[in-house]
Structures are given as structure tokens and as C-alpha cells.
């Protein structure tokens, strides 16, 4: 779970927070919006306008962006033909989900809303977003509407149901759907608010075994909730939420189908009102004494058992090596290995004053670089050039983040221009970075090397895209599936565009593609969809030769790195691919090179497709933390003969796996304990998380912690992140997810 982005917060909830005319006000707000022409026909813009109203005018009880995304992911997974929502309010969830259902090839979305005024608002906004062909808004109490839809034959089966209406009716409506056969094995339920404010009868029902349900039906349950009492344990405020308009609530008395069992999973997310990231500051504060004690213990141990120092070099042979990006685990891992195993002078630089790298004893000096000023990267480039000049840097190892890769390439060119001679740098030139990083250029380039690529097309108009998606198949040819990626747009846009195409109906595909407004200014890549496991690699390339290489299964979100053994077929395939690209780069090709691959099929017959290239260091380099030979690989940059002879350095075997405790403690320990205390999750699920966490603590390694260099771990968790959170609270800086290992806080 990420932290809530405060800038997304709606205005606070008042005592009366709905049904006071604000729903109609919302319609006036949207239809008189200066951007109305762009809102028309665009579900995304209609949702943005609803959010704008909630943030600047009045609170709205919508599901919100964070929780909405979870259900959208579920829709993409389940691909429901028919989805039903109970409780539509002003249509936020309806527009968001119906758009996702359409994108996943679905046909129908039923929004059931009891209040006719709200239902009229939904219908109006659904029309405005152009989703009227898939959405049916049904006015009336959910139980009556479900029964009516079933009897008229309009609704025969529900693939995915979203429950977000009157909390006590969750269980009774679910049972009704079971009895009518609308919900069958394979149907998926997504229920909002079961954690907060809580819905114990619903959770109890979906977690009961067949035997328990039968016993309760027959009235033999000992001491449990009385069958039929669906308000038990739900707060009085929630039970009376709609009492102003519907004085007496009525429920279906359906017995349900006790033979159905559900697999259940609780997912925490945020209401649009927000959860302050103060909690994370508190976590850092409460764990501070433990970390401080750990630092002291490590310090004493380090004094008693110091690491052996590399032999000093004769006068004049000591070089200065600069590593940039030392706030990140990858930059620190490289400096750590170099400082332990080379006698050269190591200096580090990064853009943060509070960088955990500045306190690392691996560095002799830390320098702060200037942050790029908006789109102007010059201040950053100038400050880096200044460091290279003033410190007489002999070798620069660039470990900067992806956003600075092109600028870093430019720095190499300018440094050479200034010196009038070759400047040794582990950094590709700007044009190489662009060629490898831009999705379409990369695929074209790889194709030119005769290496396998997923079928990909660059398109600058909707017609081009439609032509490819709806093109005729040869006889016997299987239906191919594609995804559509924006080119040169940020990764957030890409995350929203991973829709499987074409849809069943040609007109749906056409409608969808047209809504993306593909043009020469907004080009897209149509790419063959490949289903399979994803892998990432990290390589050090010097003068066109791969001198160090490792790879592992991709797991950015879990933040786990487990090396694939060099003897495996997959490893060899990925290495061969990387070597081919490196060779093609020639003598001037030095830098960190990493690829993302998808493997189609398994074992020795699997076929690898590269999907992306990152021409910069990958966090997987932490796998080398106990491999001294990595230092020699970097130093081979000083001697062409050595790099030509070097054996490829792979992480020492057995290689420990890496995790980040700051991440693990939140997702695998604190949250599960919280659920346990609140009685919200099954003990077995909590136990699984705890076991994972414990296993990591015992047998994995933290990517930041080091017994002989413990202060940077302390600074990361008790200075860097808290300062970032406090700053974010004060300035309202946009962030919704944090990555402990790259020290980045970014929008999801
Ligand atoms: C929390 S709001 C739904 C928000 C909406 N799902 C969204 O995220 O945009 C709950 C809605 O359920 C409706 N509702 C409550 N009880 C209902 C019932 N028995 N049948 C149908 N709708 C109901 C309320 O009128 C209200 O509009």
C-alpha cells in the first residue's frame, strides 16, 4: 500500500455530506466547465471534473482514485462480460469501471441506484462520457432491481459485482444473487468499506464454510450472529445513513446458496479524504531507538573487527573515481564494493542534501549537485561538470536515475570537449541513451540486429492503429492480441493503457482507439501481447564488452532480488542478447545496460522477447554486494587490454537474496498486525505475511544495511524519509508511492 497523495484529498466531510443538492450542483459545475469540450466523450476527463468538484467545492462519497485503481486492476484480470455495481451515487465508480470493462472487452455494466435524483446524475454523466452503449442505470432498491432484472431476462449472470451501497444490504443482496443463480462459481465480488467503517456480517458470511452456513441456516449456530441480522457489528451511524429519506430499510430474506464458498482477500486503500503520511513519520520515530542501538552495536563490532584495507598504491597511481546517484541502493552498492576492494579515492555526488550516501564511510567526499530547474537541465549538467573538473575525476560511474540518463550522456560529451581528450565514464552518450530508451527506436534497433522482438508498429493516427488491429488473418492463423503503448509519454499514461486489443466487436475497438486521439504529436506503439514471466537484467559494459552480468525475476513492487544462476538457460539467453547489443555499440560503448524481457513458454524451449531497455544501472546490482571481482570489472575501464581479457563477473554463488526492511516492515508486518488487532483478516493470511517477513529478516539481506557502514541505513530511515514526508505535508508535494531502494517518491 502506498501513502495517500494529499493533493488528491477531497474537502472534508461535513455532518451532512450528501443529498443536500450538491449532486445537482455537480452537474452545473461540469456542464459549465471551461474545458467542457474536452470533457465530452472522455471518461477520464469526466472523472477529473468530478474530482475537481470534490477537491475544490464539496465532498462527494465516491470510491476515489486509489481504491478505484484496485478494482480497475481486478477488472483487467477478470475481464467481466457483465459487471454490476450496487450503489452508483453520482456515477464516479460507474464511469471508471465501465470504461475499464469496455477496455477489457466486456459488454454490460449495470449501475443500481435507489435515489432517482442520483440515478439521473449518473445517467447524465454516463452520456457525457460516451459510455451509454455499455452502461444501464437502474433506479430502485438494489434487491428489487436485481430481482426485476433477473425476471425480465436482462441480467442472467454476474461476472464481477462491486458492492458499495447500504452496508447491511451487502450480505442480503449477495445471498439474493446466489439464490437467483446470478452469482456462481467463478463470479468475483469486490466490496468497499469492509475494513473501515467495517461490515462484520458480510466478512463473516463470505468467509464461512459450507458447513457453517448450513448450520446457521438451520438455526443451530452456537452464539454466532443471528441468521438474518445483517446490521450486527455495523455502526449505528452507518445503519441510519439513509434514514432521512428511507425511514425503514427493507432487506431481501433470501437464504442464499450455502454451497458456494469464497476465497477472500482484504485490500487496504484510501478514501479520497486521505490518510496523512504522519503515520510513516511516527513509524520512523518509534523504531528510532532500535536503529540507534543497532548502529552503536555495529560501530563497536567494526572497531573490534575492522575490514582489511586494500594495499595502498605507489604515489601518483591513485585515481579519483566519482559515483553519482549514491542516494540510491544501486549507487551505494557500487561504492561499497569499490571502497572495500580498491585503494583508489572514491567520491560521491547526488542531488539531495540529506542523501544517505553522504554519511557512508565508503566515500571520502560527498558533493551536492544542483537539481534540474523544471525542464531546464543546465544547472544540473553544469554542477556535475564542475565536480568532474574541480575534483580531477579519472573515472565517472554514473548511477543516476532514469530521468537524468540523457543529461548524463551530455555531460560525458561536454567533459571530453573541455578536456580535449577521452574522458573515462561508465555512461553512454546522449544519442545512444535516446536510441535505447525510446520504445519505438529501441525495437527498430533491436530488429536491425536480427534479434527477436515482439511485433511492434509505430502509429501516428487512429486509422493506422485500427488497420493493424482489425487486419485480416491468414487462414489458420490464431487471433493475435496487442497492447497499445504511448510513445514518449510518461509511464503513468502507459500504466493506464495496457488494454488487450482488439475487442470482440470491431466497432468497440474503433471507438476505443479513436478515444486515444493518436496523432503525430501523440504517437502510439501497437505491440504484440506476450504472456509470460518478466525478467530484468543488469550489465556493466566497457568498450563494447560485457564485463559483469546478472539477472533476476522482475519484482519492482515487492522489492525482492533473487539472482538467476549463470548455469541456467534463461541466464545464458539474456547474456547472449546483451552481448550482441554491446558488441554492436563498439569501442565507445561503455555504460550500465539493463533490459526487461518477457519469456514465452518455459524451460529450454522458452523464447525471450525484450520489451524495454534501461541504459542505466539497475537495482539488481545489489546482488554483487559480496562479489569483490565487481571492483576489478570497473577498474578494467583504465586498461583496454584487461577489459578485453576479463571473464564476465557474475554475483558470487550462493548469492544472498535482497529485500528492503523499510518496505517489508510496512507491507508484511505492520499492516498484517493491524488487521489482526482489528480482527479483519484470516489468521492464515497474516501468518503467511509474517512467515515471509521473518524469512527475509533471517536469511535475506537488506539492500541498504551494512555492518561496517551502518549510519547510512539510519539516515535513510530516520532522516531522509521523515524529512521527505514532513516536506510533503507542508508543501503538498505530489506523491502517492515510495520506493525505499531508489529513495523516490512518485505518483502512481
Ligand atoms: C457510497 S455511495 C456509492 C458511491 C459510488 N459507488 C462511487 O464510488 O462513485 C452509496 C450509494 O448507494 C445508494 N444506495 C444505498 N442503499 C441502496 C440500495 N438499497 N439500493 C441501491 N442503492 C442504494 C445511495 O443512494 C448512494 O448513492
From TrEMBL:
Entry EC no(s): 2.1.1.6
GO biological process, one term: catecholamine metabolic process
A GO molecular function held by the record: ATP binding
Transmembrane segments: 657-678
Keyword ATP-binding: yes
Superkingdom of origin: Eukaryota
Keyword field: ATP-binding, Catecholamine metabolism, Membrane, Methyltransferase, Nucleotide-binding, S-adenosyl-L-methionine, Transferase, Transmembrane, Transmembrane helix
Residue span(s) of domain ATP-grasp: 443-639
KW Transmembrane helix (keyword) present: yes
Gene3D superfamilies documented for this protein: 3.40.50.20, ATP-grasp fold, A domain, ATP-grasp fold, B domain, Vaccinia Virus protein VP39
Recorded family membership: Belongs to the class I-like SAM-binding methyltransferase superfamily. Cation-dependent O-methyltransferase family.
UniProt name for this protein: catechol O-methyltransferase
Organism annotation: Bimuria novae-zelandiae CBS 107.79
Lineage: Eukaryota, Fungi, Dikarya, Ascomycota, Pezizomycotina
Amino acid at each position: 500500500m502506498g501513502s495517500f497523495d494529499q493533493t488528491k484529498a477531497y474537502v472534508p466531510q461535513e455532518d451532512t455530506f450528501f443529498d443536500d443538492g450538491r449532486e445537482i450542483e455537480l452537474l452545473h459545475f461540469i456542464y459549465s466547465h471551461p474545458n467542457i469540450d474536452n470533457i465530452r466523450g472522455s471518461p477520464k476527463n469526466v472523472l477529473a471534473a468530478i474530482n475537481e468538484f470534490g477537491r475544490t467545492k464539496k465532498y462527494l462519497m465516491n470510491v476515489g482514485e486509489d481504491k478505484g485503481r484496485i478494482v480497475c486492476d481486478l477488472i483487467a484480470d477478470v475481464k467481466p462480460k457483465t459487471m454490476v455495481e450496487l450503489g452508483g451515487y453520482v456515477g464516479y465508480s460507474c464511469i471508471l469501471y465501465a470504461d475499464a470493462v469496455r477496455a477489457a472487452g466486456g459488454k454490460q455494466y449495470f449501475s443500481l441506484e435507489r435515489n432517482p435524483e442520483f440515478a439521473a446524475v449518473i445517467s447524465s454523466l454516463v452520456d457525457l462520457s460516451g459510455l451509454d452503449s455499455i452502461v444501464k442505470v437502474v433506479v430502485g432498491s438494489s434487491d428489487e432491481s436485481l430481482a426485476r432484472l433477473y425476471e425480465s431476462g436482462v441480467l442472467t449472470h454476474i461476472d464481477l459485482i462491486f458492492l458499495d451501497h447500504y452496508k447491511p444490504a451487502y450480505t442480503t443482496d449477495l445471498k439474493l444473487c446466489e439464490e437467483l443463480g446470478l452469482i456462481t462459481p467463478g463470479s468475483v465480488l469486490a466490496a468497499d468499506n469492509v475494513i473501515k467503517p467495517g461490515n462484520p456480517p458480510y466478512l463473516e458470511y463470505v468467509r464461512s464454510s459450507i458447513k457453517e452456513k448450513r448450520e446457521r441456516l438451520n438455526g443451530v449456530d452456537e452464539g454466532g450472529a443471528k441468521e438474518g441480522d445483517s446490521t450486527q457489528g455495523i455502526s449505528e451511524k452507518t445503519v441510519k445513513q439513509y434514514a432521512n429519506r428511507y425511514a425503514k430499510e427493507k432487506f431481501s430474506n433470501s437464504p442464499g446458496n450455502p454451497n458456494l464458498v469464497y476465497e477472500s482477500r482484504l485490500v487496504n486503500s484510501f478514501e479520497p479524504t486521505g490518510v496523512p503520511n504522519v503515520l510513516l513519520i511516527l513509524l520512523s520515530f518509534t523504531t528510532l531507538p532500535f536503529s540507534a542501538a543497532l548502529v552503536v552495536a555495529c560501530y563497536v563490532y567494526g572497531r573490534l573487527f575492522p575490514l582489511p584495507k586494500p594495499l595502498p598504491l605507489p604515489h601518483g597511481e591513485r585515481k579519483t573515481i566519482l559515483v553519482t546517484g549514491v542516494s540510491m541502493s544501486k549507487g551505494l552498492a557500487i561504492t561499497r564494493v569499490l571502497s572495500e576492494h580498491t585503494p583508489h579515492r572514491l567520491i560521491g555526488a547526488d542531488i539531495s542534501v540529506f542523501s544517505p550516501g553522504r554519511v557512508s564511510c565508503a566515500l571520502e567526499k560527498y558533493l551536492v549537485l544542483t537539481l534540474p530547474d523544471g525542464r531546464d537541465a543546465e544547472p544540473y549538467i553544469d554542477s556535475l561538470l564542475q565536480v568532474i573538473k574541480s575534483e580531477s575525476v579519472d573515472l565517472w560511474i554514473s548511477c543516476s536515475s532514469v530521468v537524468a540518463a540523457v543529461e548524463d550522456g551530455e555531460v560525458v560529451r561536454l567533459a571530453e570537449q573541455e578536456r580535449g581528450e577521452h574522458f573515462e565514464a561508465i555512461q553512454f552518450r546522449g544519442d545512444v541513451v535516446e536510441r535505447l530508451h525510446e520504445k519505438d527506436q529501441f525495437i527498430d534497433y533491436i530488429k536491425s540486429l536480427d534479434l527477436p522482438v515482439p511485433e511492434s508498429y509505430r502509429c501516428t493516427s487512429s486509422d493506422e492503429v485500427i488497420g493493424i488491429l482489425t487486419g485480416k488473418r491468414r487462414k489458420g492463423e490464431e487471433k493475435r492480441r496487442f497492447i497499445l503503448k504511448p510513445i514518449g509519454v510518461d509511464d503513468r499514461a502507459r500504466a493506464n493503457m495496457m488494454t488487450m486489443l482488439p475487442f470482440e466487436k470491431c466497432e468497440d475497438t474503433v471507438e476505443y482507439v479513436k478515444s486515444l486521439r493518436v496523432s503525430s504529436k501523440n504517437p502510439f506503439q501497437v505491440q504484440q501481447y506476450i504472456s509470460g514471466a518478466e525478467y530484468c537484467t543488469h550489465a556493466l559494459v566497457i568498450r563494447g564488452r560485457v564485463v559483469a552480468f546478472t539477472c533476476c525475476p522482475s519484482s519492482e513492487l515487492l522489492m525482492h532480488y533473487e539472482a538467476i544462476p549463470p548455469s541456467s538457460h534463461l541466464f545464458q539467453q539474456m547474456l547472449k542478447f546483451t552481448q550482441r547489443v554491446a558488441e554492436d555499440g563498439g569501442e565507445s560503448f561503455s555504460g550500465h545496460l539493463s533490459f526487461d524481457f518477457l519469456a514465452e513458454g518455459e524451460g529450454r524451449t522458452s523464447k525471450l522477447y525484450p520489451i524495454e531497455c534501461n541504459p542505466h544501472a539497475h537495482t539488481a546490482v545489489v546482488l554483487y554486494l559480496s562479489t569483490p571481482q565487481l571492483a576489478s570489472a570497473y577498474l578494467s575501464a583504465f586498461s583496454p587490454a584487461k577489459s578485453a581479457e576479463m571473464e564476465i563477473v557474475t554475483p558470487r554463488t550462493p548469492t544472498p537474496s535482497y529485500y528492503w526492511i523499510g518496505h517489508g516492515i510496512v507491507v508484511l508486518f505492520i499492516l498484517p498486525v493491524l488487521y489482526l488487532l482489528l480482527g479483519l483478516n484470516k489468521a492464515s493470511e497474516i501468518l503467511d505475511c509474517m512467515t515471509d517477513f521473518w524469512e527475509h529478516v533471517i536469511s535475506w539481506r537488506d539492500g541498504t544495511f551494512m555492518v561496517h557502514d551502518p549510519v547510512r541505513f539510519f539516515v535513510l530511515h530516520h532522516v531522509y524519509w521523515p524529512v521527505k514526508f514532513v516536506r510533503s505535508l507542508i508543501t503538498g508535494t505530489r506523491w502517492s508511492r515510495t520506493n525505499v531502494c531508489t529513495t523516490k517518491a512518485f505518483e502512481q
